[in-house]
Amino acid sequence: MAKPLPLPVWDRRAQKLVNEFMDDHPSTYESRPRRSLTQILESHPLYDWALAAYQNTRRSTKAIEPFIRKHNIDMSEFEPIISYRSFAQFFDRRFRPGVRTFPEAAGEMGAFAEARYFAWERLDPAQQFPVKGHSLSAAHILGTAERARPFLGGPILLARLAPVDYHHVHYPDAGRTLDEDRLGRRLWTVNWRALLNKPDILFTNERSVNILATENFGRMGFVEIGAMSVGRIVQIHPVDDPYRRGDEKSVFRFGASAIAVFGEPGAWRPCDDVLARTREGTETLLRLGETVAVAA
Fold first, then answer.
1. Which of 131, 140, 157, 193 is 20 to 30 A from 262, comparing alpha carbons?
2. Is 132 in contact with 208 (CB distance < 8 Å)?
3. CB neighbours (10 Å) of residue 21?
4. pLDDT digit string (tens) for 142-189?
5. Which ranges in the chain belong to alpha helices (H)?
6. What number is the average pLDDT over the span 240-260?
């Protein structure tokens, strides 16, 4: 049977292990989504649209204060707003300038999202834990074998955002966008226990695919993946315009979500602590801009 289960997460800043579980969002932690009637319903785009409509109403504001208190969100880190018009507007909150910064060293890659990270130097197709290798197929996630070819044998980052997180995504380095695409339709939960039981989640969920040419880390396959209750991935930065390190790229509208990033072989390497925790089956919580990888 399906059973929501907590996820072990190593908080790099606090240097401690926590078991993450938001009991007001239990379906986010479904271990067997195919066997969950709730997950089957909530993965459908119609549910996402209906929930989005409610979260944009005045009535939804009554959930904001209890949510802040329950999850100990430090609102001093965010741009002040006198009164939120909806829960959706609160969910879209932005950090105050200077609260998060990206590395000044050219060879250090800053975390592109405030999220929990897995990392691999290269993917073993026979990998079974903490995520099946099939789940991270570049060809399936990026949409075509041709698009995936430059990244075969290269490093991979998989970031998972929880409902409590800042849901804006930023560019890890300066550069330009070479290619873009929109793929997928469903919105299954993206936690790793679910990926073990339904390996096709990352290439059936709605996703925004971008091929980035960066100054310090080569070409990157950058894929924002919608998840339960967050099918709206909005590109903020015009894709035809160059971008600088740390510029806002996109935003997820309400819910949980994920980002998969593929690198060229030998271009960069994920940080040792994230690699080590991944081998243990534990995600590493990184704040926006904290170093997640280094140039080779």
1. 193
2. no
3. 14
4. 999 999 999 999 999 999 998 899 999 999 999 999 999 999 876 677
5. 37-42, 45-55, 64-70, 87-91, 138-142, 145-148, 192-197, 272-279
6. 90
Q: For residue 110, what are its two tokens?
A: 């800053």
List strands edge to edge, sheet with 168-170. 168-170, 248-253, 232-235
**C-alpha radius of gyration, the chain, whole number:** 18
Task: Give the tokens for residue 259.
Answer: 């980002």
What's this model's pTM, rounded to 2 decimal places? 0.89
Question: In the numeric block, which tokens belong to residue 231?
Answer: 């099918």
| Exposure letters 136-146 (e unless 16+ CB within 10 A, then b) | bbbebbbbeee
CA dist., res. 188 & res. 143, Å (int) = 18
Distance, CA of 279 to CA of 274 (rounded, Å): 9
CA 287 to chain centroid = 12
Residue with tokens 């075969």: 152
Separation of alpha carbons 237 and 243, rounded Å:
8
Distance linking the first and last C-alpha atoms of the chain: 45
User: Which residues have CB under 8 Å from 43's CB, separation 6+?
Assistant: 33, 186, 187, 188, 189, 228
Q: Is the dihedral of CA 220, 221, 226, 227 positive or negative?
A: negative
Distance CA 105, CA 247 (A): 16
